[in-house]
Amino acid sequence: MPCPTGSFKIISRGKGQSCMASCAYYSGEKKYSEYECCWKYPHSSSSRVKQVEVMLPPNAPRAYADPQTLWNAVDAAETSVNAQTARSMLFALPRELTDEQNLALVRDFCQKEFVDKGMVCNFFYHDKGDGNPHVHIMLTLRAMDENGKWLPKSKNVYALDENGNRIRTPNGSWKRVKVNTVDWNERKYGEIWRQDWAAAQNAALEAAGRMERVDMRSLERQGVEDRLPQKHLGPTASALERKGVSSERGDENRKIISVNKMLASLQKTVRGIGAWLDELRKAVSRQQIIENPDDYPLSDVITAYLDMRKNGRETWNRYAQEKGAVHDLKDGFKAVSFLSNHELYTVGQLGRYIVETKQTFSKIKAESTAKKCRIRDIDALFGAIQTIRELKPIQQEYESIHWNGKREKFKAEHGDELNRLQKAIWLREKLVKSLGLASPLDKEQRMALKAEHTRLEAEREALLPKLEEVKAEMAELNRIRYWTRKVIPDALPRVSDGRVSIKDAMEAAINRKELKETTETAAQTVLKRNREESVQHVLLRSHPPEL
Fold first, then answer.
1. What is the DSSP letter of 228?
2. Top-confidence range, 123-127, 505-509, 527-531
3. What structural domains and CATH numbers belong to the chain?
4. With 80 as the cut, is the pLDDT of residue 415 above it?
5. For residue 183, what are the contacts with CB-CB under 8 A and spacing of at least 6?
6. Is it the case that residue 480 has pLDDT exceeding 80?
7. Mutual orientation of helices 502-542 and 443-487 as an angle, nearest 10°?
8. Least confident of 230-234, 253-257, 311-315, 336-340
């Protein structure tokens, strides 16, 4: 794939440029320029800036790790009003890599290409989530001595002839020539850095397990023969085109664009035929899946499901399609990682693992529930005992009254307490029996119950993380099972003994209908696209653009 790269440029005071202004713009933060005695502002949101770093060679002062300090020091070292102060680069980053992988790529590249050679490197990683991650790099032009002092960019030396002798000028003085103290500013490095950047990206993509590769070469050097290169307009033609005035080279480029569109259309037609053939192969494959689903690879199931999802988004707008594709890829990656970690490769292995996980979940849940019920009964027993202890004096007072009138009056006043007491006594006896205890409860039994209560709570607390882990695993398994049944409607029934539940039968019927509709829609879309492109191809052949 191509690798769009921005510019290599020198920041020069003679062109009204400032290294501090560039730093402020790239960092998204205002910076104070001591050379110009004013603040430099970014003039844009800082939300795009993900990372700002300064990479220093060993002999550089540690204070230069701050960008403002660094570029103020650079400005101070340049006394000329038209001095060149820094080099600025722009590199596009692979959007296939994560932020962490891209940052590692940038750091490694800058270290090898710039810092190890003595340059101070200040990079700014930008990504505002629009699929265009990139990095701005600012480099110092001067070398530093072992004490961190800036050295001259160039020096005058005596010119020597082929024998190594100094050359005299016509006026009798020795001829001198200007030479750079470092070779960083030589033009050859533009191509070297460009190619090294492509190699670094390809290495990072390979390490990340990606198939994409970048290529910095021109179409001709790449051997691309199905596209014609456009001509460079130049400043005059560009100015005319911006004003809406056609230029000769602009007309030529428009004809070239038309030819390239025709070539692209032919390629699209060929790809469309290939896609149609792929759909036929997928249809045959699906039929084979239905006949023997247990041995079918889960990787193919996930691919088929994602294809179904993609085909279902044909009528969506481009933004919605891309958003849906990103969401599906994230889910697909999560599913593949889960299956790989659990060494599940076929539909049959998945089905057996679902059964095992369900059994594990049921066992842990049953154990946790049993402990919870035991704890609840112990709590209820101690609650009943406490209630009896509190209300027993009222019962005794009631029994000590012998006069019927007074007895009835006391019962009317304390009827609720007496009823609660009787319920507590009944509950105590019931719980003592259900807990397998001897009645009446003595002190030793009560101490044993409290110890058991503490132990059960600790055991149940230890079971909860396991239960949550298995629960999360079941959720992921159910999601993959759902995907599998969308591709293979009769696979992975909920009942493992060969029976088919009514719910499974209804789900399978719906999935068969959706699968048939999706397949037919995809095939019709491919055929329609092929017909349209064939017509376009005929029209282009009938009226080819003139070069």
1. P
2. 123-127
3. 5-152+186-216 (3.30.930.30), 365-476 (no CATH)
4. yes
5. 189
6. yes
7. 40
8. 230-234
